[in-house]
Amino acid sequence: MKIARILHAGYAFESGGTQILFDPIFENPFSRNCHAFPDVRFDLARVRALRPHAVFISHFHDDHCSLDSLNLLDRATPIYLYCVFDELFAMIRALGFVNVLALELDAVVRVGAFEVIARRALEADVDSMFHVRAEGLNVLNVVDAWMDPETLEQLKAYAPWDMVLWPFQTMREVAVIAPSRAEPGPVRLPEEWPEQLRALAPRYVVPSSCQFNQEPWSWYNHAMFPVTYRQFAQEVRSWLPAAQVIRLNPSVAVELTADALAPSAPLPWVLPVGEQDLDFAYDPAVRPPPTADIARHFATLTAEQEALVLDYCRSGLLRRYQAMELPQDSYFCTPCVWQLSVYDHEGAVRQFRYRIHGDNIALVGDEEAPGWRTEIPAAKLYAGLELGESLTSMYMRIDGAPDDADIVDDPLIRTLFDNAICAYQAAQLRRLL
Which molecular function GO terms apply here (predicted)? Predict the structure, then answer.
């Protein structure tokens, strides 16, 4: 069985003349501002010439399911997708794919030499894992998922696993969105990982899933990604002395047999750029720059785009907020003044204050000091409204939220992302069609 890394959680598997792709991304940057780490380019002519026997997509997040990447593939390629939203299946069909199939948990999908089984993840309404079988070998591609305890019991029956592709990087989304809430101290890997990996007893462990940074100037590059390849390898070796930790950079391929693991020819359509054995440079003492400085890195909005952003702040946000159902334990169930600060490309700010009480929201003047404060670059607010940009790349900043409040209860987060089903892919489809 040949296993090759594409990018992030993307892999190409080959066996017995059959090639299947998992979560293929052929873009850099992808998901708008995820920059490949280490850097790569793609030979798009060769990508278009690929004829994989099937594509498997683990979930709907835009760094795993991109219509721009799928658009490069032959429309006869079967697409197997795990997703609870019918809308995404319809989008892929609208792109021209004629064989778009829903993955069912624990059901065997046979493609040539391969058997692929979607396994239940901890958040079963979001993502899945892949159990891949061929040549008598068992490989577990955990993708981005957290392991479900019942699934772990189920997977123990196949131990020792020949290889596990393990999502080694934990992302500190809350810490970068609300820096005042960030917990100081040393980086620790999740406490459940040793038990889970010991139960699987893999021969080979690949640190998988997180191979990107943000823009070169971004402070996120020192705050979002706390786990290094080096630390992961050291700790896994201490938990599993008999296992080997194998790093697969983009394009790198290996040949897995029952007896050994050997290098194989790299993917010719994934082109490494520069040094590849890079590691993350996490700095727990990094200080976030002002949002005004961050906003200066982004392009000027057109007059029409700026008008759309301002209209949203003055009226659209209020309509969306009032149309949603507030959780009973929300911080905003009690009266609060919330301030939204929007920064343009020159760092100039427009501030909007709202009085919120439960499901009611109204613009107010500046007579009353705000409690909860939210900042965002105007370009990123526009991208969230029109381009499906994800929360972790919007450089949103929250301050003043008490420690017992849920950060995602923020009114801007809720109005942008509650019920925003596959917004990124929908924006891609509008552009592609």
Answer: hydrolase activity
pTM (global) more than 0.90: yes
Q: What angle do CA 215, 221, 223 make, to 5 degrees?
A: 140
| Residues ≥6 apart with Cβ < 8 Å to 86 | none
The pLDDT of residue 228 is 95
Whether 230 and 104 share a structural domain: yes
Considering the domain boundaries, does residue 377 fall inside one? yes
Q: Which residues have CB under 8 Å from 235's CB, separation 6+?
A: 189
Q: Residue 180: which domain range?
A: 2-272
pLDDT on residue 402: 85
Are 136 and 166 members of one domain? yes
Same domain, 141 and 253: yes
Say if residue 78 is preceded by a cis peptide, omega within 30 of 0: no
pLDDT (tens digit per residue) in 230-280: 999 999 999 999 999 999 999 999 999 999 999 999 999 999 999 999 999
Domains identified in the chain, total number: 2
Amino acid at 341: S
Nearest to 77 by CA among 57, 93, 55: 55
- Rounded distance between C-alpha atoms, residue 211 and residue 252, angstroms: 13
CB 169 within 8 A of CB 210: yes
Closest CA relative to residue 33, chosen from 280, 214, 209: 214
Given this model, what pLDDT does residue 187 score?
85
Same domain, 264 and 299: no
Structural contact between residues 10 and 253, judged by C-beta atoms closer than 8 angstroms:
no
Q: Is there a single domain that holds both residue 307 and residue 214? A: no
Which pLDDT score, from 0 to 100, does residue 294 have? 98
Question: 143 and 11, same structural domain?
Answer: yes
State residue 186's pLDDT score.
74
The answer to whether the beta carbons of residues 58 and 23 sit under 8 Å apart is: yes
240-243 long-range Cβ contacts below 8 angstroms, 24+ apart: 240/197, 240/198, 240/201, 240/202, 240/205, 242/203, 243/201, 243/202, 243/203, 243/204, 243/205
Please list the residues that pair with 81 across neighbouring strands: 57, 102
Give the model's pLDDT for residue 267. Answer: 98
From residue 86, give the alpha-carbon distance in Å to each of 53, 91, 115, 116: 23, 9, 25, 22
Choose the final residue of a domain: 241, 272, 303: 272
Name residues of the chain where pLDDT drops below 70.
Answer: 185
Q: Which CATH number characterizes residue 376's domain?
A: 3.30.1050.10
